[in-house]
Amino acid sequence: MSDRDEPPACPPPVLKGRPRRPKTNSDHQIDIRRTLEEPVRIVRDGKSRPVSAFEAVVRQHLRKSITEKSMASLKFILGVAEKYNVIKKPPPPLTGGVFVVPKQLPEDKQREIFAYQPPDGEKDSMFRICTIIRSYFDARRR
Predict the structure, then answer these.
(1) Helix then strand then coil, % of the chain, to nearest 5
(2) CA-closest candidate to residue 133, choices 56, 85, 11, 125
(3) What is the DSSP letter of 43?
């Protein structure tokens, strides 16, 4: 066989059922918009249902970012979530609240907690209060 000989032609593949034809208009051009907007069918839990092509892409990237730990897919998912404003903002940090002092705490420990006045502009530390309460209960356990 020389370099100029052409390889033998392969027979066309045998398609079962109806052959799929691309979406074309009368000029035999593919209608990209129609192809992208047409719903695709996905199978989930053994049932087939139609979803938009965009939803199928997002689901595929989400699956890939979780199972394969793909950073590119995760970046895509976060970009879409940010674009459509679906990321829930975290709640603001707690800056106050009510702390209930245990009833069985002796009066001297209660005075130690409430008599302390922090310097101007500073807040009392919950760590100091919890340390006082914990020391009382640790001493009681012994």
Answers:
(1) 40, 10, 50
(2) 125
(3) E
**CA–CA gap between residue 66 and residue 124 (Å, rounded):** 44
pLDDT of residue 121: 75
pTM higher than 0.70, yes or no?
Answer: no
Give me 47's structure tokens: 């049932």
Question: Tokens for 78?
Answer: 């976060």
Chain-centre distance for alpha carbon 9? 50
pLDDT at 16: 59
User: Is the Cβ–Cβ distance between 50 and 40 less than 8 Å?
Assistant: yes
Q: From CA 61, how far away is CA 81, in angstroms rounded?
A: 12
Task: Give the β-pairing of 47-51 and 40-44.
Answer: antiparallel
For residue 141, what pLDDT is reported?
A: 84
| 124, 118 contact by CB (below 8 A) | yes
Structure tokens at 2: 């020389």
Listed in sequence order, the DSSP H helices in the chain are 32-37, 53-67, 71-83, 107-115, 126-141
Which residues does the chain have with pLDDT short of 50?
1
